[in-house]
Amino acid sequence: MAKRKTYDVEKLRNIVNDMLAKSVCSSGERKSMQVILERVLMETGNYNGYSYLTEDKVPEGHLPGINGAVFYETLNPTPKQMFENTDNTRVRYL
Q1: What are the domain boundaries of the chain?
Q2: pLDDT at 82 over 90
Q3: What are φ and ψ of residue 11, in 5° steps?
Q4: pLDDT digits (tens, 9 = 90+) for 60-71
């Protein structure tokens, strides 16, 4: 039987967070990254939620996870305003 190996969960979270923020691949590919990371975080007791990435945290020309500019332009923005025309795979795991 093969020897069991371990890997630093925090390192994996940092790698995936970087990929979710900087990638220009499809949202489907990012969703796959999310599913794998969430499972590892849940199974190891390291899941602490996530936050959506704003326009300044994603590649230029790509949709953010949340419309951060809405907070500066609108008093009490609605969820529809905050998430209209966004990509829910643009997140950072905590």
Answers
A1: 9-93
A2: yes
A3: -65, -45
A4: 999 999 998 887
